[in-house]
Amino acid sequence: MQKNNLKKGDKEIFGIIEAERKRREETLEMIPSENHTSPAVLEAMSSILSDKYAEGYPGKRYYGGNEHIDEVEILCQERVKNLFNVPFANVQPYSGSPANMAVYFACLKPGERVLGMDLKCGGHLTHGWKVSFSGIYYESSFYGVNEKTHLIDYEEVAEIAQKEKPKLIWVGGSAYPRDFDWKIFKKIADEVGAYLAADIAHVAGLIVSGVHSDPVPYVDIITTTTHKTLRGPRGGLVMVTEEGLNKDSKIATKIDKAVFPGLQGGPHEHQIAAKAVCFKEASEPDFKSYGSKVVDNCKRLSDELTKRGFDLITGGTDNHLCLIDLRNKNMNGKRAEDLLELSGITVNKNAIPYDPAPPAKPSGIRIGTPAVTTRGMREEEMIKVAEVIDKVISFDDEDKAKKMRDDINHLAKDFPIP
Ligand code: DSN
């Protein structure tokens, strides 16, 4: 048995991890779905709990020796219930897509109808897109955003729901810079007798901080990842609300059965322990102020970019991300992503609503502030970031982009990753 630690036992993997650490320390992570987790979360994630099999649920396992594993999972469930104010949580989903898949398994039979936000307008693959299980095994239809304002057109959503009569409606997305009107969605879902599910993967941390509207009073089911604005380990989660239990008293049991044995085997208990640590951190007062700084930073960044002639989808942001249409800068999103990476700012290319360009070279980029805010950056730093972004895009030149890297390295070093 290898008894050495990683540094001695596997120099190659150790070296790659160290190189990635250096890259992160010297650059700015501005992909909206990424963040820097705390040492406590990482410690739980790399703990001995990884070794244990625990198929089943607390008190009903298919393996022995799960006394402490049960404690971890129950504590994790309780922390979710307190943090989000929900009566039920399944903390086993490995990530966001399995969490969403569990909702399909629990609510629909194959071939039944689902309505989600169009991926091209900021939605998610698992909300019915044709190449995902959700569009392959279920009959999907989509609502988009208004072609001019790029905001959700709730009247159109209601019309599509009336026409399609879905059994499940998803709200949530990966590239929508605005808040959602949960109340209107509830009315739409109630009128057609659909389950209403909120996928809050992007904004969960903002919701618990009180800076994004809360779906809990309105929706039946909530899914989220735990590694975005929530700043936990990579993982997923399904919650059921009082509304959901009133609509279907068996929905919580259906979710449990869908996760195990429906689609997963042994839960990753080291990950569940790390999620529990994240929920504890997210319930502390500091986290509330973190969420509000994420949004303040993003608003400031979006204002500064707008001042410099950037065209922001919806004209700005309510949350942690902004989506930029680069066509007036004569650049596609792929080129911008590559140049910004040379300068030390990591963003991702992204389609804009009704994008005429192909997905590999879309017209936009998506930028977010969760990770830089974790490093302690504030609005003053967002001005500097906007200046660099502006220069890199205006120069449109690799060498000039590389020269900007010194400025970003200095900025990054002033704000070490906690
Ligand atoms: N892949 C995630 C994102 O980057 O938004 C969504 O699941």
Features:
418 residues; alpha/beta; Aspartate Aminotransferase, domain 2; Aspartate Aminotransferase, domain 1; 2 domains; 7-stranded mixed β-sheet; 4-stranded antiparallel β-sheet; 46% helix; 13% strand; globular; binds D-serine
How many structural domains?
Answer: 2
Low-confidence stretches: none
How far from one another are the termini?
A: 34 Å
Q: Give the overall shape.
A: globular
Largest sheet: 7 strands, mixed
Number of strands: 15
Continuous helix count = 18
What does this structure look like?
- The protein is α/β, with parallel strands linked by helices and 418 residues long.
- It has 2 domains: 43-282, 3-Layer(aba) Sandwich (Aspartate Aminotransferase, domain 2), CATH 3.40.640; 288-414, Aspartate Aminotransferase, domain 1 (Alpha-Beta Complex).
- The protein has helices at 6-9, 11-26, 39-45, 67-84, 96-107, 133-136, 154-164, 182-192, 204-208, 242-247, 251-263, 269-282, 285-307, 333-343, 370-374, 379-395, 398-403, 405-414; strands at residues 28-29, 56-57, 60-61, 88-90, 113-117, 139-143, 168-171, 195-199, 221-225, 236-240, 311-312, 321-325, 345-346, 348-350, 364-368.
- The strands form 4 sheets. It has a 7-stranded mixed sheet with strand order 4-10-9-8-7-5-6, sandwiched between helices. Strands 11-12-15-14 form a 4-stranded antiparallel sheet. It has a two-stranded parallel sheet with strand order 1-13.
- α6 links the parallel β5 (113-117) and β6.
- α3 (39-45) packs antiparallel against α12, α4 packs parallel to α12 (269-282) and α13 (285-307) packs parallel to α16 (379-395).
- It is globular.
- The structure holds D-serine (DSN).
- D-serine binds next to loops.
